[in-house]
Structures are given as structure tokens and as C-alpha cells.
Amino acid sequence: MTYASAISETYGDVLHECVSCGSENIKFWRQKNFHYTENASQKEFHIYRCESCGTGFLNQPPHVQWLQSIYEYSGQALTQAITLEDVLDREAKFPNCKVDAERMSHQADRFNISGYGQALDIGSGFGFYTQALRRLGYRTVSINPGKYENEVFRNLNGDEPLAVMFENYEPSGQFGVVMMSQVLEHLLEPNQAINKVSGLLAPGGVLACAVPNYNSFLVKLLGTKDNACLWVPEHVNYFTGKGLRALVEGNGFRVVKVEQITRIPFNAASKRLRLKGRPAAVIDGLVKFLQIPFARLMHYFGLGIYINLYAVKKL
Ligand SMILES: [Zn+2]
């Protein structure tokens, strides 16, 4: 089979058990269609849900070669190259990746009792996590298949990540920290991936991961119209706090911290209301400050947009 014909395959194998906890008690939840922008054809995806831990996943999932053909360029829906200046400008207007990278790296470092100073940044994106880990004194290995992100990474950090999928990564040495920010929802076999991570970490080392929350208020409100969590075909798994915990605990980890993160772009409301000038500035200011109590309320009910989880490899 040639590569060209291989990527014409749409679906992978049918799943019979939950990708997080392994339960066979899984049920069809909803259908979500994927539309090609350039033509009228569409692909149909079925989302299944685990009755035990609440995790959702595409069943059948997209074919691995289709996903790889997307990730070769970008893991975050970039359809063309982007400059470091554009990325930094975006971060200056709406601090996002940089804030997450600094918070998660600090937390991971705080929990790392392995004595190992090497960190692995899986799905390193624009490079903010690697940058933050280096500032904390870690030697880093970064892996990311996407050409567009890797170009930005190189301009930010001066070197280049290994352009491989984690499944194909052949490790060098042991690690004290493994960072997986916005990665697990993309992986077809998250249990195998976490098992591999467990093997890479020294005892007492830390896995830090961030995933969209399947229980978020966005999914509750928008249903399958949500694209933060339910973004097909790239996101194949939709985690709950319970499911993510089951996934790591089943692979030799002890969970030490779970928190939710909710951040709404300041211009989300003014853009929707098509405001400009001063009215837009007033609404943007309101969103900026009201989202603090709003996020607190959502987190209280487990409805935040993202889940951050830190787990220590058992000694
Ligand atoms: Zn489950």
C-alpha cells in the first residue's frame, strides 16, 4: 500500500473498552461531523462515553496516518506558518501559553523528588514549556512533529525539537519531569503513552499534564458544537478528572494535585456582539475581571475548561 492510498483511510480500529480506565461498559453518546473546508464532503464521527469514569472518545477513531498527515504541520490547527513575533504579540494581548507553561513547570518542579534534572517536553508546541523548564535549570528534550510550531520553537529557544510522534520516540536517559500539555487528547492510545512515560521517569519523578475538560460548561452549553474539547478529528479523547486519574493511577503513578483552569479571551463577548471602540473596551474590561469569580464558580462545580494533573511515579 502506498502512503497516498494509506492516508485515504478515514477510520482506525473499533474500540471495545474505555481509553482511560479499560472498562467495557461504554456507550454511544453523540455524533459529530467533520467538514472539509475546501469541498463539500464530510466525515461522520461517533463519540462514545465510558459509563464508569465518564471519559469520551471517538469510536471508531480517525486513522493514525490521517492524524499524522495533519500533525506533520501542526498540532493546533495552524494552516500556514506563523512567526514568533505573531505568537508573542498574541501572548501580550492575551497571556495564555506562557502563563500555563510557567505555572505547570513550577508545580512539576515542586513535586519532583527524583533528584533527576532532565525534563521531557512532549508536544512542545511553540516552546514556552521548554523555555520555562530551562529557566528552572532543567536539561530538556523536546519532541513535536509539527513543522509550523517547530519553526517558532527554534526562534524562541535557539534549537529544534525532535520531529517525531511520541509513539516513535526512542528515549535517552531517565527523566525527573515529563510535560504533556494538550497532548493526551490527541493520542490514539493514551494508556500506552502513559505506560511509556512511566518507564521514562525516574522513581519520584513527575508527570504534568493538561487536557480539555469533557465536563466543562462549554460542552454542557454547546454540546457537540463545542470545539475546545470536542475538536474533531484532532482530539480523539475527551477526559474527565475521574478518567484522567484512572489513566495515570493504572500506570504506577500517585496523583498529587488536580486543578482546573478557565481562561476566556477578553474580546470573546465584544467580538460576538460586534462592538468596536469604547463600548468594546468596556466589555473587554468586564470580561477580564468578571472571569475571576466566574471561573471560581465553574471550578467549584467541576465545570472548568481545562484540567491540570500532577502525578508522581511511585518509589
Ligand atoms: Zn472509563
What key phrases describe this protein's structure?
10 strands, 4-stranded antiparallel β-sheet, alpha/beta, disordered N terminus, 11 helices, 6-stranded mixed β-sheet, Rossmann fold, 315 residues, binds zinc ion, 35% helix
Q: What do these coordinates show?
A:
There is one protein chain. This protein is of the alpha/beta class and 315 residues long. The chain has one domain (3-313): Vaccinia Virus protein VP39 (Rossmann fold, 3-Layer(aba) Sandwich). 35% of the residues lie in helices and 22% in strands. The strands form 2 sheets. A 6-stranded mixed beta sheet has the order 5-4-6-7-10-9, with helices on both faces. Helix 4 (97-111) packs across helix 5. The longest helix has 24 residues, at 277-300. It is globular and about 55 Å long. Residues 1-6 have low confidence and may be disordered. The structure holds zinc ion (ZN).
Major sheet strand order: 5-4-6-7-10-9
User: Ligands bound here?
Assistant: zinc ion
Structural class comes to alpha/beta
Largest sheet: 6 strands, mixed
Broad CATH class: Alpha Beta
Q: What is the percentage of strand-forming residues?
A: 15-25%
Shape: globular
In short:
The chain has 11 helices and 10 strands. With 315 residues, the protein is of the alpha/beta class. It has one domain (3-313): 3-Layer(aba) Sandwich (Rossmann fold), CATH 3.40.50.
Give the topology, please.
Blueprint: H1 3-6, E1 26-35, E2 42-50, E3 56-58, H2 64-71, H3 84-93, H4 97-111, E4 118-122, H5 128-135, E5 139-143, H6 147-157, E6 175-181, H7 190-200, E7 201-212, H8 217-222, E8 237-238, H9 241-249, E9 253-261, H10 268-272, H11 277-300, E10 306-313
Bound molecules: zinc ion.
